[in-house]
Design a protein that fits this description.
- The structure holds three protein chains of three kinds.
- The longest helix of chain A is centred in the C-terminal third of the chain and has 23 residues.
- Chain A is of the alpha/beta class.
- In chain A, helix 3 links the parallel strand 5 and strand 6.
- Chain A is 41% helix and 19% strand.
- Chain B has two domains: 241 residues, Rossmann fold, CATH 3.40.50.970; 131 residues, 3-Layer(aba) Sandwich (Rossmann fold).
- In chain B, helix 1 packs across helix 2 and helix 9 packs across helix 12.
- The longest helix of chain B is centred in the middle third of the chain and has 33 residues.
- By secondary structure, chain C is α+β, with helices and mostly antiparallel strands.
- Chain C has a two-stranded antiparallel sheet. In chain C, strands 3-4 form a two-stranded antiparallel ribbon.
- In chain C, 13% of the residues are buried.
- The chains are: A alpha/beta, B alpha/beta, C alpha+beta.
- Chains A and B meet through helix 1 and strand 2 of A and strand 1, strand 8 and helix 9 of B.
């Protein structure tokens, strides 16, 4: 079982990111995924948590996640904050919306596998959201699929198509661009 | 076909599949997406029934009391304060023998103002004459809603389908959405013998004599009594058609267990992992899930009662001045037995506190060792 | 003797009278009767609107109170803006 925690802000589509991931996992036939919003009032701008569990067996545990295997950070402000790595297992993956490099982030908080993606720039390039509130969730999903290897990009595209209400093609393009960016960087690092 | 659905959407999809004819509902967190999804389905033409906007939950149920009297299939959804506001009409729906189905998303009651889960809202409606089910997964929400229509229509009694606010209502997971043809076979058009007929006007439920009222209540009690059998046979038919089976009490690794957790709702799903972890650690743990609360499955529960084998109930609800409500009901079910096990009460997660694998393991270990004081409920939480 | 032994499932599910509520004539509840003075009546229909028993109908221009159902509550007497309705003693039939 892979347990993931999401950090974002109200209005960024954090819960939808977890849902799209769950749907992509189901569609790619690699198992089951449960996407769990942190239970609270929806308030734009307030810090928001969500969780996801991925398993090849039916998932029965229905609590919050206290020791995640991976963390996904939608808001660059939180990028390398203490809260983001709280409880994260040693060596755990952090998919993060950041212009910084993996090395820079590792230097700030060593002991984890940092996977940065410039999600804000990608979102804005595809006309998703504004400078003050970019809609980064689909780009983040692309990065997750590449960085965690839990689903294929085609399944994610279908999940995005079903989940986003507007700018469907732009959202898919953002997911794909983030996917390629992370994939390319991981590939380069492996060689 | 499997789809990624939140619990609230699973309920709404079931209502559409059941070809429900009238929905009257008022939105309230954490039920809102049930109403939203049905309104959207209505706007897109996917849902062919009437959607009646109302100014309150009391009006929602009043509207359905009228609609159901004409023999149409009816649904509403609510939560917490909304259910409390509907209370008066719940008695009427049951007494008038109207097969209304309701999704009730368990949420704690204020004061103080609170949104998270707790079952006291629906359990406080236990004497209204509604059947009550408690779901443990989103699949079960969809399936139980379909089952509920059939059971309600066979018994002429309303049914409440309960599930945990946020923990199920807002969590997305794969749900197998059955084909419309299959649902049509399971749920043919409802033929309501008591339906209002304009050509033959009658006065419904006008003042009876005390002797008549007494016998009407006895009739209702008898129908609640035979509900056990009716529900079991509807569940059998459901299993044959859809391949998923349910029962009033679902036991997990109970046969050789030294002590049993007794759980309901979403924590009953987490409890399965707790049992498996305890087993791995060498303990003979087991779990009983109570899925049906009204009628209370006393007989099914007695089958698991062995003297010397402690039972520990995990209640995410509380009756002030008494104890956890499932614990109280279980004790009363076991009392007629000559030899009884110890029943311990645990109160956990009121107002949405997390009921984790770790917490459930502690609760089981505590019960297995035998508590000093079995008379008082113990309040336990996972401090994280 | 005090124990009910009949099969409870033989009891009907509900009480549903073979007659509509209009068959329940409530006129004999009345101890005083409203009388409309047609010369004063303006046909404003306020009595029709306020009658809690819904036993006022409009016949042409003027209201008529149906004594088979009128309970003699006198709401119409109170509400009539031109005092065209008075309350008279009811006499035993």
């Amino acid at each position: 079982m892979l347990e993931i925690r999401f950090h974002g802000r109200g209005g960024q589509g954090t819960v939808l990111a977890a849902k799209m991931l769950a749907d992509a996992v189901l569609r790619s036939g690699r198992g089951e995924c449960m996407a769990i919003p942190e239970f609270g009032v929806e308030r734009r701008g307030a810090p928001v948590l969500a969780y996801a569990r991925i398993s090849d067996k039916p998932i029965r545990v229905r609590s919050r996640i206290y020791a995640p295997d991976a963390v996904v950070v939608l808001d660059p402000v939180f990028a390398a904050s203490e809260g983001v790595v709280h409880g994260l297992k040693p060596g755990g993956t952090v998919i993060v919306n950041s212009e910084k490099s993996a090395e820079e982030l590792s230097a700030l908080r060593p002991g984890f596998r940092w996977v940065p993606v410039p999600a804000k720039a990608i979102a804005l390039k595809h006309g998703l959201g504004s400078q003050t509130s970019p809609m980064v969730n689909t780009a983040i999903c692309g990065a997750m699929v590449a960085g965690l290897g839990v689903a294929d990009i085609e399944s994610l595209e279908k999940a995005v198509r079903e989940a986003v209400p507007v700018k469907v093609e732009q959202n898919i393009a953002a997911a794909r661009e983030a996917y390629e960016a992370v994939k390319g960087r991981l590939h380069a690092a492996a060689h | 076909m499997k789809k990624t659905l939140m619990g609230n959407h699973a309920a709404a999809v079931a209502v559409r599949l059941a070809r429900t004819e009238v929905v009257a509902a008022y939105p309230i967190t954490p039920q809102t997406q049930v109403v939203e999804a049905l309104a959207e389905m209505k706007a897109s033409g996917e849902f062919a029934g009437r959607f009646v906007k109302v100014e309150s939950e009391h009006s929602a149920m009043a509207c359905l009391v009228g609609a159901a009297q004409t023999g149409v299939r009816c649904f509403t959804a609510t939560s917490s304060q909304g259910l409390a506001y509907m209370h008066e009409m719940l008695h009427w729906a049951a007494g008038a023998r109207l097969p209304i189905v309701m999704a009730e998303v368990n949420r704690a009651l204020g004061a103080p103002w609170i949104l998270w889960t707790d079952q006291t809202d629906s359990l406080a409606q236990r004497d209204t004459g509604w059947l009550q089910f408690y779901c443990s997964s989103n699949q079960e929400i969809l399936d139980t809603t379909l089952l509920a229509f059939k059971v309600a229509e066979e018994l002429s009694l309303p049914v409440m389908v309960n599930y945990d606010g946020f923990t199920l209502s807002h969590t997305y997971e794969p749900v197998d959405v059955p084909a419309q043809e299959l649902v049509d076979r399971f749920l043919p058009k409802h033929d309501f013998a008591l339906a209002l007929d304009l050509a033959d006007p009658k006065a419904f439920s006008a003042l009876p004599k005390p002797q008549e009222y007494f016998r009407l209540r006895r009739r209702m009690a008898a129908d609640m009594g035979r509900a056990h059998q009716v529900i079991a046979s509807v569940e059998d038919e459901f299993a044959r058609l859809f391949g998923r089976s349910y029962s009033a009490v679902e036991a997990y690794k109970a046969d050789d267990a030294d002590a049993l957790l007794v759980t309901t709702g979403a924590p009953a799903s987490t409890a399965l992992d707790a049992v498996d972890e305890l087993r791995k650690e060498g303990f003979k743990a087991g779990n009983l899930r109570i899925r049906q609360f009204r009628p209370f499955p006393a007989e099914a529960l007695r089958a698991y009662a062995r003297p010397g084998r402690n039972l520990v109930v995990v209640d995410r609800n509380f009756s002030m001045g008494q104890e956890g409500i499932f614990c109280e009901e279980l004790k009363s079910a076991l009392y007629p037995l000559k030899e009884r096990p110890q029943v311990f009460g645990t109160v956990a997660g009121l107002g949405g506190g997390d009921i984790t694998v770790e917490l459930l393991k502690e609760i089981w270990l505590d019960a297995k060792q035998g508590r000093g004081d079995a008379l008082q409920p113990v309040w336990m939480e996972d401090a994280r | 003797m005090p124990r009910l032994t009949e099969d409870p499932l033989k009891t009907p599910l509900i009480i549903a009278g073979g007659k509509p509520m209009s068959a329940n004539k409530t006129g004999n509840w009345r101890s005083a009767r409203p009388v409309i003075h047609e010369e004063k009546c303006t046909g404003c229909m306020i009595c029709w609107k306020f009658c809690p028993e819904a036993c006022v109908t409009i016949e042409g221009e003027l209201p008529k109170i149906h004594m088979d159902w009128c309970k003699g509550c006198a709401v119409c007497v109170q509400e009539c803006p031109v005092d065209a309705i008075t309350l008279e003693n009811e006499e035993a039939p």
